[in-house]
Structures are given as structure tokens and as C-alpha cells.
Amino acid sequence: MTVTVAATCTACGACLATCPERALLRAPRRPAVIDALCTDCLACLEVCPVDAIVPVPPPVHPIEEASYRIMAERVDLSAWDGGDRDVVARMVHATADESFAGTARIGERAVDAAVAALAAEAPVVCDARMVMAGIPSVAGAVCLLDEVPDAPPGDTRSAAAIRLAAKRYPDDALWVFGNAPTALFALLELHAAGALRPAAVVGLPVGYVGAAESKEALWSGRLRPVAITNSGVRGGSPAAAGAVNALARLARAGRTST
Ligand code: SF4
Ligand code: SF4
Q1: pLDDT of 258 higher than 70
Q2: Whose CA is nearest to atom 6 of ligand 1?
Q3: Does residue 97 sit in the same domain as residue 38?
Q4: Residue 258 maps to a domain
Q5: 14, 105, 193, 244: which is deepest, by most CB within 10 A?
Q6: Average pLDDT, stretch 103-116?
Q7: Which residue among 3, 4, 8, 10 has the greatest number of ligand 2 atoms within 8 angstroms of its CB, and so is best to mutate?
């Protein structure tokens, strides 16, 4: 993404002095943006007194465009609105698993809360490196699995990494689970004990052992209003990363669930 300067610019020059990359050049009517230098920091947008600077969304890749077109012919997303629909569509798009259109569950505040967390550059704690690898544009993403070389007695490495992350990021992080049911159960336990206050939770563990149960526990518990999850055994890192990428796109566009 880069920015563009609208005709409402009064040529006050405030943005020129603010840009850390010297990506704005003085020009006769209004500043010109050098796209190759712009790092999308949006500092210029903050200082403009007349809101003349507008973010330009990145162009959609032709393959992505074709993929969404085919998906629209095959998948009925009419049960979903606004940002919720964007999230479910991205989960289907990332996995080609059309069942998410029917099994996804999104709490009433989940998209707004997650988008706000991403816009505020809150930490994004992932249960697996595969989830992190799928969200390269999210600067605050972390996975602490490498800091837990061995599973503690009676626990899994994934759950222990979440317990460690809870100490480091107790408040307002976005938590993302695409792999381990035990990690999601650990988060629910920590939340119930008052040790953790997530901004939102993307809970999409996959598999035959515990995945459906962990997601059911998320959806039937106190975190439901800020939960993005699904029912059943399907899920996985691509689906979780897809959901986060949709949320990140909404955050960049300044949109929420409406
Ligand atoms: S978004 Fe940041 S880098 Fe780009 S023009 Fe504005 S201030 Fe400069
Ligand atoms: S801060 Fe806004 S009004 Fe001033 S020069 Fe930049 S774009 Fe124009």
C-alpha cells in the first residue's frame, strides 16, 4: 500500500516535513508521492489538517481475483455480512475448503476487536510457526514454541508456549490458533483464571483429537463475543492465517465489521 494526495490539499507542507522516508516531494499544486520510497507508515496521514492524504490499497493479484470469482460461483456466503463475510471468504479462499462457509462461528464483537488490535499494532500470538509464516504482513506476530524445547511433565510444548506467552502478553493481544487444541485449551484455562485478557481469539485448531472440543469450549465460554472459530474437526494454519490476513486487510483499509 502507499498513499495518494487528494485535491483538497492546501499545500501547507506539514506532510513533507513529517515523512521519514522523504517519499513526498514538493510539487506545484500538492505533494507528489514516490511510491518506491513510501513504507506505508501513515505518518503523513496523521499530520494532514484537511485529511487530504488517503491510503491506496494494494492491487489485487489476478490469480486472487480469479480465485474469488470462482469461489463466488461455488460458495454461498449470503449468511455472512460485512467484515465477518470477508473473514469467512478468506478462510475458504486460503484452504479451498468450502465447508467453512457453513461451520464458521464469529462472535458479535470479534471482527471489530481484532481489527482494532491489528490497527493498534498489538502483539499477535500464534500457536505455530506455520501460522506466522502465513501472515508476513503482520508485524507484531510472535510464536514462542522455540523457547520451549521440551514439553513439561503433563503438558504439551504448544500449551507451555501459550503459558509463557500469557506472562509476556497478558493484555489486549490477538491470539491465533491454527494447530494445537492443547494450546487453545491452555488459553481458555488462563483466561478463566484471570491471567489473560485477549483482545480477540482466532481459534481454528485442526484434527481428530481435541480440535472440535477445544473450539466448542471457546464458543461456549466467556470469550465467545471476541472469538473467530468453527465447529468440527477441520481448521488448520492456512485457515487461521487466512482469517488474520482478512482482518489485517480490514485494519489497513480502516474498516471494521460493517
Ligand atoms: S506513508 Fe509514511 S513513508 Fe509514505 S509518504 Fe506518508 S509519511 Fe512518507
Ligand atoms: S499535510 Fe495535507 S494539506 Fe498539507 S501539504 Fe500535505 S497533503 Fe496537503
Answers
A1: no
A2: 44
A3: no
A4: no
A5: 244
A6: 97
A7: 10
